[in-house]
Amino acid sequence: MNFADVSPGLRASTRTARADLTIVGGGGHVGIPLVLAFAEAGFRVNVHDKDQEVLAALQSGRLPFIEVGGEELLRRALSRNLLIFTSAPSDIAPGAPVIVTIGTPIDEFLNPVRKVVQDCVDALLPQLVDGQLLVLRSTVYPGTTSWLDTYLTRKGCKLKVAFCPERVVQGHGIKELRETPQIISGTTQEATAEAAKLFSHVVPELVQVTPEEAEFAKLFNNAYRYIEFAIANQFYLIAKSAGLDYRRVEHAMKHNYSRARRIPSPGFAAGPCLFKDTMQLAAFAQNQFSLGHAAMLVNEGIVLQLIRGLGERYPLAEMTVGLLGMAFKADIDDTRASLSYKLKKELLPRAAMVLTTDPLVKTDPELLSLDEVIARSDLLILCAPHRAYRALDFAGKPVLDIWGALGGANVIG
Ligand SMILES: NC(=O)c1ccc[n+]([C@@H]2O[C@H](COP(=O)([O-])OP(=O)(O)OC[C@H]3O[C@@H](n4cnc5c(N)ncnc54)[C@H](O)[C@@H]3O)[C@@H](O)[C@H]2O)c1
Question: Which of 120, 196, 273, 285 is most buried when burial is the number of CB atoms within 10 A of its CB?
Fold first, then answer.
């Protein structure tokens, strides 16, 4: 798409526009809530993203994905003329602090793709000036912030480099930003102080550490969560292998017993962050992160074990299987790294037919309506426990629900 065509006045106004802050990746899942939080605090924000379609959507007042409470804030920010949209690095607002929120993936070896940060910063460098604050907010491999500082110094750039990781839960960033302590770190005292001052406008509390401590804190947070999900999933699989209904065991474990309250329900532990960040940590630990790897085996393996269990119980080759919920978790529209798709892929050669549905996902042309999937399926699997599924009876068809989200005689735990 030609961005200039979508928004004719945009580039011209951008060149002269000044902003209080530039957010690179400002059209992403981390970027948008941050943009809106700063705009709500009165900042004029340069929303910088290479994805021009996302920028066009934002500019027209539409969020490209579910972000609870976001539409109202977007409308307000637009009406107060607090958002400036840019897509070419040469157009970013001059002099203002820059916060980088781009994706930081892992590669086919499960190692971090460290070059994405370098490429992004290289593209921005011609516009940055000495003394300007550059904040990394993406989740990065340990040592990245200090590496960036050295890299910039070698190039003769005297930027203030900080790392202030995002820790909010996807889809609820606006509320959680207001409630979550912000980890602040910088490669110099000046950088730390400036980052702290900036974030104090939008977060309730600051936790100041060194960049490396901050990098590990973020990765440990995510790996811990991933391991927690794996524990529940492994308990579920063990209970099933003993022929038990895990829900009854779970109830006995948790009912009015505070030490077990935080054990999550079993389910698909998926999405763009937890697996990826656990593997970043494993890469740092020279693949000696045994708990992290064990969690990965359980969380990724549960899909295959469910299929094996169903195959022992049902003649899958003669059945149409319907998958309910293709997002990576409940009540969002994001399918990135969703295990629902792994399940679909593994079921396709085994079942007579696999049908999929999701009330929120808009990006998959193969999705059918819920009614059609229920009507045509012999067996249903609850993949993402969207609230919309809670009160349905699924026409008496058997439904595999490992989450414990549904009730009814036809539900298989
Ligand atoms: N999604 C979450 O809930 C969450 C939570 C905490 C931390 N994180 C971390 O935040 C980072 C971003 O995650 P995300 O889910 O927002 O990713 P995302 O893909 O939704 O957003 C990234 C955005 O950056 C843009 N982008 C990428 N490279 C760019 C460049 N060079 N110049 C301009 N724009 C560019 C993309 O077009 C995209 O819109 C990752 O490191 C992730 O691990 C994500």
Answer: 273
